[in-house]
Each structure stands twice: as structure tokens, then as C-alpha cells.
Design a protein that fits this description.
The structure is a homodimer.
Chain A lengths: L2 E2 L1 E4 L15 H14 L3 E5 L5 H10 L8 E7 L11 H8 L4 E7 L2 H6 L5 H15 L5 E7 L1 H7 L1 H13 L4 E6 L6 H15 L5 E5 L6 H10 L4 E4 L13 H11 L2 E2 L9 H11 L17 E2 L2 H9 L17 E2 L7 H10 L9 H16 L7 H11 L8 E11 L7 E10 L5 E8 L3 H14 L9 E9 L10 E8 L4 E8 L2 H23 L4
Helix pairs in contact in A: 1-2, 1-11, 5-7, 6-7, 8-9, 9-10, 14-15, 16-17
């Protein structure tokens, strides 16, 4: 029989404490709607008493009809020198007009004395009065016991007393917080057992973990096994310092491996999409190694294994990637073999047989290029173009006849002047020759500008395309400035994103290769969309 | 009483299975030496039977006298259709001439049948024969039980039998591997208890975890609590798919929180430095949210908390950051920098007091430059030169009045022609002007050649110096080819090695800054050695 767990997302509140994670009110609304689609039970929208932006979020989100989620407002217990009904923070919480309120109070004696600057007894009164004041106004009232585990280690009796007061005053769930993130899983288990011993086996409690010991997910799972009914965390584990407990790992662990049920478990196939959406909105790169949802999470290297993986994926993957909406990736690496190439070709819409001699030629060429420093894992557009070339169907829409780049710093303090000139022929072999020039803030930028200027006359659709990312890696081998470099470029237009690669001892030459393949791929995609080639 | 645990690092083998983590043989040697300094017990250098590059690493590392670490070679049990003494893979393992060998065998019945394509009984013979064959030739022999936990779930008796055979044949440690990374901490505990029930309480075992369920660190700690004497993992958790167990989290958890001892525990204050060094060598950004060692791990936001944090750091930090060589960062405050700067200055032989106004100016300048993209962790020579400049003692031995770089590819197939011209004045301000030119195989290389040609006339000792490494990182911000780049250069002469940095939107300008600082530092070191400055 499966047990239910409720998922409480605090990406919009605790998550935004992360150094690089910033969301506007509009972003927050978009993320909240997406979390609702996923089936998150509670969405903590912010701390209205501390942030006017958060108050606006609560006003705006009321205009939307949510499918399942309930919005929570977060705030602290009342000020030590005030009474509950006169406290600004509690008032702001109620003004957020959310069905759920989460209120946090102090557990750790040193924080009561140092941060609150009050007595231990007064803190207990504050917790009780704050919970009691809010109780009649909300559907659900959660009590976050801040620094619970550290506080328990320091003074267990006092820590337990704070929980009792919150419960007596009407809190629905007592959420045990590892605020500093220093607690390890075996301690979580021991302390929760003590809590249940003193407050009763039926104590309704939740867990809120931080990742400072790299155990936030395990701590959350351990708490659930000990009976927690609510797990608080954030998407992709975003949060202050080392982040919060990562819901994108916790939810599939609970549902796929531990037999628990939650609403988001019904929409697990959307998990990867939602995880990437949240970082997309925040304009953060999505870390490729994220469990379950990262681009590398189901990536397999090596030729000999590929056929085995395709026959028996379960023996090489802890779960089927489709269950969380992720996909298996077979990396074309220097171990690659025929089956890899056939698999990739199928992704590009080319049906090849492993016995076809052209597959052998492609394998040889890829190996040769990888030995030279090319890498196709992040440059699948270059791989696709290479395959067509070896199949005797080169995709070429122009040829670069020559270029010149001049980078001049005429005086010690003046800025460099960078100019590129290019000569292209469109279409290749027979077409018109265009000779033009442009400047840029660096030599690669100038080359990019000059090439586009020359080509856009013939192919105005190149204006739709932009370069999203430009990466340089110096390859091992010759040390120092004579080394070979590999340039990886990511480009996109309105619909698609693609990667290309170039390698040379000359960084401009390598960049030029990757740029040319990027423009070429755009032109190829547009023709393919129109049914040509 | 504290218990001992041995740390087994596989960054150089399993770590390099990560999609973006590539190391040359030279890089591997540098990383191995650094891991030895940290006090890692075993360093797995590679799989000599599968990769000729790895065989070279084992030859080269023998020239170094390691302080503490022992090097391990990794390989598989012998081929099903061969005998142990005729097997190429086992031969390659012995040819690596390492004091330690780690050999992996199959535990999971489906892998025996599908991957090895042999019978269950034959697999047991293979394990036994392979271990027995290697045993007399090595000091330490470890047996990695691949897919142990999945294999145990499928057929516990068979999984246990593989361990017994490896132990009987002489393996020193039975390493239980969660190869697919799907096992959760409570399952690790249950299965290890079963192992001990059947193989005896004194079974000597280790743990090798992967992070596909986001629990690799917790799984490793759980295994240690159940008696594991060896933990295998990688620096920063780098590895295939979602990575391996992160030693940079495991080691401080074991030592600072669980009362275990290991050699690396004695050098914990160097953990952050080593963690960053490894990713620097691989030219990967160091994720800021990494527990213990990340730049954000001890970053505190907000003014009101600052004084409380400084008075009672323990109440806001799970450990003292200095214990792992990391630093507290108080965001939006210059308090974080001063002690750092004083500490660094002392390393450079400069005694400064934290109250000295020049320290404040240095902090400001460093912050300003870091905001622009400079980074001094791998470029201490640039930091030292900057400090002298702000102390009113600029070290300048020449000035670059101007340069011009021309990169010309006159035809589609011909190689580019790259030429640099430079104008320098030696000594600066008053000296002779030298105007010269040189070619190179790329624009940075040409600039390097021209600068040396101009300067060596005045400073022939620059001939002793060579550039060891040249790295480029594109900085986040403006996307595409208009982005800012950071260039890091490592140089050395007969005695010393140093790093310098340059930042600009123009890669040649950034390279030029780093080159100039590198030559300057060499000239400064030589004067200092002679007692001048």
C-alpha cells in the first residue's frame, strides 16, 4: 500500500536567496503556473512582510485559476516587543490572502538570545501567539521550526517545547528545518525518532533541508521514511549557499523507487521540461549532470556498449529516462563504432545499415577528426553536415575564398581597432563574388560581422539566427600559445538550437570553421523545412 | 575512539568518463601530484588495457616520488575465452608497474550473460583466476564488484558468491559498486547488513557510488557507518552521467562531523585549493554551489546579519570555512576581503596589517577586477604585481607602445598567414624603442614570438622561460562572439612556475595582458633573486 507525501516548493522564496537566481514578478507567475501544471501541492510565493515585490506576486497570482496547487505566503513569528494582532509582518501575511501560510519560529536557544534578543520563555509565547492569531484566517497553517536540528543538539527539551507550542496553537504540520544544512542523514533519523518519542508517533511533521553537507536529498528521503508527510525543496536544488533539497531528485526517488504517491508523481514525464523551464526563465544554464533531468543524466559513451544499451537499457540505466521526460543520449566519442553512427544518423532522419560501407567511412572520418581535436558531442550540426558530405550530398550554399583580420592597438592606452575583410562566392563555384569588411570588439566578432554582412545579401534569413554561446578550449599537446584550439558555437533561430565545431592552431581559423558550419546548417534547415535540401 | 577510512580517488579514470572532463597525460600527472599533496591514499590513474594514453601516465608518474599516495591501475577480469596468464588486459595491468591494482568483475547475472556472454559458473572462475593471477605481483589488490547492489537485488546468492571467490583468491578489499547509481541510502544499509551476515562481520569492504539518485555522498557515508574501510570517489564528484561520489564533500563530512580519520583529513585546509585546481587544469568552471569548497558555500547575504555572523559564525555556518580552506564571503561588504588580502600578501613576503588603508584599496581593486572577469586563484603572479602597483612600487621593465596582428587566409584551402608587429620601449618612459615583427601558427603565438624577439635583446634571461599552458574561458554575459574572454597563462623557468591573467572582449588584447605580466614577473623574480627589485 502506498503512502502519500505532499510536495512544498519554495523555489520562489528560498530559491531566490541563491546568488545568481533572480526572478521578476512576471517570471515568478510563469514559474508558479508551470509548477501547478507539474502537480506541486504547495507553492511558496514569497515573504510579503520583507519584500514589496512579493506582495505584488500574491496579488497577481490570484487572477489565475490553478489546477491543483495552493499558494503559500511565508513569514516570521511576531516581533518580541509587539503583540500578534499589531505586528506588521503577520498583517502582511494575511494581506497576501493565500489559502496557506507558513510561519517560522526560533528553535535554537542561541538564536533566541542573539537574533531575537529575547528570553526563552518569551520566544515560546511568541510562537504560540503567532500561530493562534493566524489560525482562523487560513485553510492550512504550517510551522517551520528554523534551525531545528542544531537547536535540538544544543537543547533538546527546549527544541521539543517550541514544537509543542506550535502544535497546541493549531499548526497543521510541524516542519523540521535544517537551516544551516549541516545535519547528516543518520542524525536526521535519530533526532526525528526522539521527536516522535516525545510528541507522539502520530506527530504530523515535514522536512526542509539544505545541501551544505551534500546530503539534502538523502536527508529528505530519510525523514519521509521516518514518517514526514511534507517535503520542502526547490527546483534543481537552487538556493542560498549550496542550495536547498532538490525536488527534481526527491520526487522521482519517492515515486519510482520508494512507492510513495504525490500529485506530481502523476506528471513525472514532465519533470525534465519543468526543471529546464525554471532555469530558462531565470536565464541560468541547466547543469548537465543533474540527476534525472540533466542532459548528461542518461548519456552513454562507448561503441561496444551501445548495442547492449539498446537491447537492455535497464541494465545500464537506473530508470527509464522517458518516465521523467528525459532522453537517452548515445555520445559519439573516440571509442565510437558503427552502431553509434547508425543511431545518430537515425536521429538526423537518415536510415543507414551498420553493414553499409559508408558507415565505415563515417566512423573512420569521425575518429580521424576526433584525434585532431574535433568533438561532436556538443556539435551535432557539424556531425550531420559531415555525414551528408560523406554520403556524397555536401550541403554548401556559399564558399569563403579568403579573409583577413587586422587587430591593431596603436598606442599603449587606446582600445584595439579590429577589422575583418572577407571574400565569399554565392553559390559556390559559379556564383557572384562578394568582398566586404566590418569591425568588431574582438577579432572573432569582427569576422562574424563581416561574414554575415557578405551573406545576408543573398540569404536574408540569416538575420533570424543568433549566436548563443561561444566556447574555446585549448587542446592538450603542444604547450603554450602554439597549442591547437577547439571552438564550439551554439546558435539558434526562432525554433531551433544547434551546435558546431572548428579546430585549428589559429583561433580565428577555428572560429571561422564553426561560424561557417553554423550559417550553413541554418540554410540547410530552412531548405529542409521547405521540402528541398 | 576514531576509526580510520582510506580514500581512493578515481578522478583520473572514472572522472574522465564525464562528458566535458578531458585531461592530457601532463594534466593527469599534475592532478596526481596535487592529490598526493592533499593526502589521498590511493590514486587510480587509468585503465592501461583500454587506453594507450593511460599506459603513458603510469610510465611518467614513476619518475616522481610521492609523499603518501599509492598509484592504482584499473582493469577488468580476464576475457572469458582466455586464461588469466595469457590475457592482454591483465598483462597491461602488470606492465603499469603500480603498487596497487583494482580489478572489476561482474556481479549482476544479466551482465554476465549479456555483456560477458558466458555462464554464471565461468564468471566465478574468471573472477577467482584473475585475482589469483595478480595477487603475487602487487602490494594491494582491490576487487570492484561492478553493479553489486543491482546484482544483489536480482540474485543475492550469486552476488555474494562473486565476493567470496574474490576474497578467497586474495583480494584485500571488496569494493561494492553502485555502478548505475540508482540505489538509495536505506537500501545500501540493508544490503551491506546482508553481506556481513553471510560473509562475516569482519569482511573488509569499500564503497563506490554514483550520483544518479542524488545520494552518492549519503550512500558513501552510510556504507562507512556500516563498516566500509575504503571510499572511492572523485574530486568535485566529476564523472559519467550524474557523476561519482564527491570526495570534496565526503572527506570533510567524515573528518569534521563523524569522527573518522584519514590522511587527507590532516590537510583539510587545502581541500578548496585542490578542488579548484583540478577543474582549473581541466578548464572547467568551478560550480559555485559545491558544498564545502564552492565560492558560494559560505556566502552570506544581507547587512543585518553581518555582525551576528562575525560574532557567532557557528550559528550561521555548519563548519568554520577555514577548516576546508574556503572563506566566508559577506556579500556587499568589504569585510570578507581584508583578511584574505593580508594572508596572500604574507605569502608574497609583504607584511600588511588589516587596518592599513592600502589593504582596503587592494580589496576594492581586486573586487572591481573580479567583477570585470579577472580571477586570481590561478594567477597569483598577476595578483602580486597588482599589489606592488597599489603599494606604489610598480614592477615595470618595459612598455608596449603598440601592436598589430594580421591573420590572413588568402585562399580557401591555403593555410592562414599570421604576422604580429610590436613596438616596445625598454626601460619604460625613457629607454630605447624597439620595433619588430614575427610570424606564428596563430595570432596569439605570433604576438608571443614578436614580444619575445623585441625583449630578449634587452633581457636575454627571457629565453629561460617558457609558456606551459594557455587557457581561454568565455565569460557569461553578452552571448555569442561579442563576449568577454579571460586568458590564463602558466609559465615556468628552471626553478619556478607562475600564472597570469588577462581579460578583454578582444582575445588578443586579453592574451597580450597575460603575456606581458608573465614576462614582467619573470624579470621581477630574477631581480628579487639577485637582491634587487
Amino acid at each position: 500500500m502506498s503512502r502519500k507525501v505532499e510536495i512544498y516548493d519554495t523555489t520562489l522564496r528560498d530559491g531566490t536567496q541563491a546568488e545568481e537566481f533572480n526572478l521578476s514578478v512576471e517570471d515568478k507567475v510563469r514559474v508558479a503556473l508551470k509548477l501547478d501544471e507539474l502537480g506541486i501541492d504547495y507553492i511558496e510565493g514569497g515573504w510579503p512582510g520583507s519584500n514589496p515585490k512579493d506582495a505584488r506576486f500574491f496579488r497577481e497570482i490570484r487572477d489565475y485559476r490553478l489546477r491543483h496547487a495552493r499558494i503559500a505566503a511565508f513569514g516570521s513569528t511576531h516581533h518580541p516587543r509587539k503583540e500578534a494582532h499589531l505586528d506588521e509582518n503577520l498583517k502582511a501575511l494575511l494581506e497576501a490572502k493565500t489559502p496557506v501560510v507558513t510561519i517560522f519560529g526560533k528553535t535554537w536557544t542561541i538564536h533566541v538570545k542573539e537574533a531575537l534578543k529575547t528570553t526563552l520563555e518569551r520566544n515560546l509565547e511568541i510562537i504560540e501567539a503567532s500561530v493562534r492569531f493566524l489560525r482562523p484566517h487560513v485553510e492550512k497553517l504550517f510551522y517551520d521550526a528554523e534551525h531545528f536540528f542544531d537547536g535540538f543538539k544544543e537543547d533538546p527539551d527546549y527544541a521539543l517545547e517550541t514544537l509543542k507550542r506550535a502544535r497546541e496553537a493549531g499548526a497543521d504540520v510541524l516542519v523540521l528545518c535544517d537551516t544551516n544544512g549541516g545535519t547528516l542523514p543518520h542524525e536526521i533519523v535519530e533526532i526525528i525518532r526522539e521527536v516522535k518519542k516525545h510528541l507522539g508517533k502520530k506527530t504530523v511533521f515535514g522536512i526542509h533541508a539544505h545541501n551544505d553537507s551534500d546530503c539534502a536529498v538523502a536527508n529528505s528521503l530519510a525523514a519521509v521514511l521516518e514518517g514526514a508527510v511534507q517535503v520542502q525543496g526547490t527546483m534543481n536544488g537552487v538556493g542560498e549557499r549550496c542550495g536547498n533539497a532538490n525536488l527534481c531528485s526527491i520526487i522521482p526517488n519517492l515515486v519510482l523507487k520508494m512507492g510513495y504517491e504525490c500529485e506530481a508523481g502523476k506528471n513525472l514525464h514532465r519533470l525534465t521540461e519543468v526543471s529546464r523551464f525554471v532555469f530558462e526563465v531565470a536565464n541560468l544554464p541547466h547543469p548537465r549532470h543533474l540527476p534525472y533531468v540533466g542532459r548528461s543524466a542518461f548519456a552513454h559513451k562507448g561503441g561496444v556498449h551501445v548495442s547492449a544499451i539498446l537491447r537492455h537499457p535497464r541494465t545500464y540505466e537506473h530508470i527509464d529516462p522517458e518516465r521523467v521526460g528525459n532522453t537517452r543520449r548515445v555520445l559519439v566519442s573516440d571509442l565510437s563504432g558503427r552502431s553509434n553512427i547508425v543511431y545518430k544518423a537515425r536521429q538526423f532522419g537518415l536510415e543507414l545499415s551498420a553493414e553499409d560501407p559508408v558507415v565505415g567511412r563515417i566512423v573512420e572520418e569521425v575518429k580521424k577528426r576526433e584525434a585532431e581535436g574535433y568533438e561532436y558531442e556538443a556539435a551535432e550540426a557539424s556531425l550531420e553536415l559531415l555525414m551528408y558530405q560523406l554520403l556524397g550530398e555536401p550541403k554548401r550554399y556559399f564558399e569563403l575564398l579568403g579573409y583577413r583580420v587586422l587587430d591593431l592597438r596603436p598606442s599603449e592606452d587606446g582600445p584595439p581597432l579590429v577589422e575583418a575583410t572577407v571574400v565569399v562566392r554565392v553559390p559556390p563555384g559559379v556564383g557572384e563574388v562578394e568582398h566586404t569588411a566590418a569591425v568588431g570588439n574582438g577579432p572573432v566578432n569582427a569576422l562574424d560581422h563581416a561574414l554575415r554582412k557578405a551573406l545576408e545579401r543573398f540569404y536574408p534569413q540569416l538575420k533570424e539566427m543568433k549566436l548563443e554561446d561561444y566556447k574555446v578550449r585549448v587542446l592538450p599537446g603542444i604547450p603554450g600559445t602554439g597549442a591547437r584550439v577547439r571552438v564550439l558555437i551554439t546558435s539558434r533561430d526562432h525554433h531551433r538550437q544547434w551546435g558546431t565545431v572548428g579546430v585549428s592552431e589559429d583561433i580565428l581559423e577555428a572560429s571561422c570553421q564553426a561560424l561557417i558550419e553554423s550559417y550553413t546548417y541554418k540554410l540547410y534547415l530552412d531548405r529542409k523545412a521547405k521540402g528541398g535540401s
